[in-house]
Design a protein that fits this description.
There is one protein chain. Strand 1 and strand 2 (39-42) form a beta hairpin. It is globular and about 35 Å long. The protein has helices spanning 5-17, 21-26, 44-54, 112-118, and strands at residues 28-36, 39-42, 57-66, 69-77, 89-99, 102-109. The protein is an alpha+beta fold. It has four helices and six strands; from the N terminus they run H-H-E-E-H-E-E-E-E-H.
Length: 127
C-alpha cells in the first residue's frame, strides 16, 4: 500500500533538517532533482552536499496535495555562517514530486502563490 505523500515529505524534511543522510537516502529517489535559489542538481550525492552546505531546517506550515505532486509552504531556517545567501529564517514554498513513495524532485519557490501556480493548483485565500 502506498505511503501517504505528506508522511514521505515529513520524513524527508526531518532528515534534511537533522542532516540525517541515511534518512535522506531512504526518502529520496536515486536521481532526486533539487532546484533552488542557487542552482539545480541531481542525485543523492548532490542532495547530501546541499544539506551539508546549507544546513537548512524545514518545517511544514501548510500542504496542498494533488496526486504525486504536493506544494508545501514552509518555515525555512539557515544557521549563521552556512553557505547560503539567505536570511536566517523565512517563509518559502516547495513543489515536491513523489515517485515510488520517495521524493523525486523538490523545486523551491520564493512564495506560496508562485509554487501553486507552477503546480497548476488554484491560489488560496490569504490567512
Amino acid at each position: 500500500m502506498p505511503t501517504d505523500p505528506l508522511t514521505v515529505i515529513a520524513r524527508w524534511q526531518a532528515a534534511v533538517s537533522a542532516a540525517d543522510f541515511e534518512g535522506l537516502r531512504a526518502n529520496s529517489t536515486d536521481d532526486i532533482e533539487i532546484i533552488g535559489s542557487r542552482g539545480t542538481g541531481r542525485g543523492i550525492p548532490y542532495a547530501e552536499d546541499w544539506v551539508r552546505k546549507t544546513g537548512i531546517g524545514l518545517q511544514t506550515m501548510r500542504a496542498f496535495p494533488r496526486g504525486d505532486v504536493v506544494v508545501v509552504e514552509q518555515n525555512a531556517r539557515w544557521p549563521a555562517g552556512a553557505d547560503s545567501a539567505e536570511a536566517p529564517e523565512r517563509i518559502i514554498a516547495t513543489v515536491f514530486t513523489l515517485r515510488d513513495d520517495r521524493i523525486a524532485r523538490a523545486v523551491r519557490y520564493e512564495d506560496l502563490p508562485s509554487a501553486l501556480a507552477a503546480a497548476g493548483l488554484p491560489p488560496v485565500v490569504a490567512r
